[in-house]
Amino acid sequence: MPHAGMTPETPTPGRFFEPYDRDACEECGRCLMNCPVMGLDEAGARAEMRAMRGGGAGKHVLRRCESCFACNLVCPNQANPAQLFIERFRGEYRSRGMPRRALHFQPHEEENFRTYVIRRLPADEKRTLKRWADTSPCEEFAYPGCNMCTSPYLAGAGFLKDLNIRGAPEYCCGEMYYRTGMFDRLEESAARLNLFLEKLRAKRMMVLCNAGYNMFTNVLPRFGLKAEVQVTSFLPWLWERIEGGEIRIERRLGMSATIQDSCYGKVLGEAYYSLPRKILERLGVEVREMAHAKECSYCCGIGGGFPPGRMYHPYWIGRATVRSVMEARRTGADAVVTYCAGCLQTLCSGMALLPALRKPAYHVFQLVQMAAGEAPVNRNLSRGAMFVRGVLVRQTPMMLRGGSVKGRPITKTP
After folding, report:
1. Mean of the per-residue pLDDT values for the chain?
2. Which of 88, 277, 287, 312 gives 20 to 30 Å between its CA and that of 365?
3. Whole-number Å distance between alpha carbons of 226 and 198
4. Residues 6 or more apart in contact with residue 275 via CB below 8 angstroms
5. Nearest in space to 107 (alpha carbons), one of 69, 145, 67, 63
6. DSSP H helices in 244-340
7. Which residues on adjacent β-strands are paired with residue 404?
């Protein structure tokens, strides 16, 4: 595996993931006034903060917050209001459990939204996953992330062929547990990942997922991750290889695109979210920004199912996804590009559900392939349709049954 780009990076300042600072918070409401989803007026924002701080139900956060962390960026006192909101999510989960329908979106349930897709993958992608599942010791490796494991064709580019990719869906980083306040499951995920990393005994790990990169550097160590491994992200690696000529750009693409930012783009900062923009410009792609981009970007749509008042209800996930697709369409760009496999899957799910909204959608890997003279495998829309079918086939019966559940504990070994 080449070492280019495998140098230590400065992670997001830990303060973004420190506990909520009650003493620093002045209940000014700026966090909720500047929230891209809620955007409350000052009076409403102040009232909501009083309710959240006092343990009340409030009118908005427990039903509408998508835990995208934008509020932490605008807090003038660095009080970390996102952690207050996630703690409130946690309290709701501990006292009430989750609706049965939410089981479909629990990453470690035996039957979940990813396993539904993985069991129906083409033979070539199943072979790829089997190869990635190797846990024999290695010096360094690339961790694919769960979303990449449900679309392994995205890692088929020639410039990725030398990467020693290791991982499997059962070694999920637990990001969805964090954003819904399921901290017990997150601790169990960390324990399983410790065992996974102990088996590999690697010194360096490059993460092909923005959420996973943030989780390994900023969150999981707070929930029991103990393995000592140097963690880097794929975006600086990709940019360095393009800049250094290791990835040869054979043709300029001559198109326009808008970028669906990962929620972790805003968290990891301008130096990070500027990279996909630099890459597209180098490929000859005109970037047209959405109204909500960079620090104030909307979640792709999956976050619409995170708050306890809506937990994984397909209507609210679908509504949030359509919101993001419509924003992309309003730019007039030729295509929407993501640097997150999960964002790509969510947007394509929305477009598969509503054909009138369809627009070419790509992962940044695919555009680099095109500019390098390769013909990328493009199963983006059909993969989105598979996720929709999973909701219809598996989640709908759960909704009809109703009831609350806790989900099963995550064992150290899969």
Report:
1. 94
2. 312
3. 10
4. 235, 236, 238, 239, 339
5. 145
6. 263-268, 270-282, 314-330
7. 99
